[in-house]
Amino acid sequence: xxxxKGRVALVTGASVGIGAAVARALVQQGxxxxxxxxxxxxxxxLAAECQSxxxxxxxxxxxxxxxxxxxxLSMFSAIKTLHKGVDVCINNAGLAHNEPLLSGRTEGWRNxxxxxxxxxxxxxxxxxxxxxxxxxxxxxxxxxxxxxGHRVVPSADEHFxxxxxxxxxxxxxxxxxxxxxxxxxxxxxxxxxxxxxxEFAFRHHNSDPEKxxxxxxxxKCLKAEDIASAVTFVLxxxxxxxxxxxxMRPVEQVS
Length: 255
Prior knowledge:
The protein is 46% helix and 15% strand. The protein has helices at 17-28, 41-52, 69-83, 106-133, 159-181, 200-204, 209-217, 224-236; strands at residues 8-12, 32-37, 58-63, 88-91, 140-144, 187-193, 245-248. Helix 4 (106-133) links the parallel strand 4 and strand 5 (140-144). It has a single domain, classed as Rossmann fold. The chain is α/β, with parallel strands linked by helices. Pfam families: adh_short. Its EC number is 1.1.1.270, 1.1.1.62.
């Protein structure tokens, strides 16, 4: 991780869960991390904790609604002005709604596409532009995907969400191919966790907290820090090594 010290990483959805753990880990490794979310109160608290801990990097909170392209573009413009640009883009933000394919609301489907697919694609495009403008040839784009992007969960509540994550799998490979065609050494990686104990299930099953709790009580789940460790592992790989897809799940998870 030595070569990343002082360089700029963008982490989307950095207020809680995996995003917060990744932001903390990168700050600990000496990176300047722009952590964005719709509400930055928790990111501001995390930034203060990182500073108190004496980490060599810094965490910069940025308020951004990723379902709004103008806000994303404004964020990248601010990063360019204040920090020159993005060297590492961690597309972590994602959400799920209980909207089955046969009875779901279009509004819920659209929100999942806006955040899980379009925001990821816009951030990737803008991060690549930022790297290209500054002749950064060793940047990295990391998409936090899901095992739901590799197999369809047998639950109607998850089907549309899985479709958006299958899109992330395809997008990551497409990005890798386009980066090769552009003759750059910028890398693209997909990290696909299984069940991770975060606030995700409680947001997904917000009307049924007992169901959400049962998801995490059924086995020893992954922790957000496990995914953060995977991110630093990927970033630590030698520049000539392309890690395409990291699939990780609890030992006790069946599928």
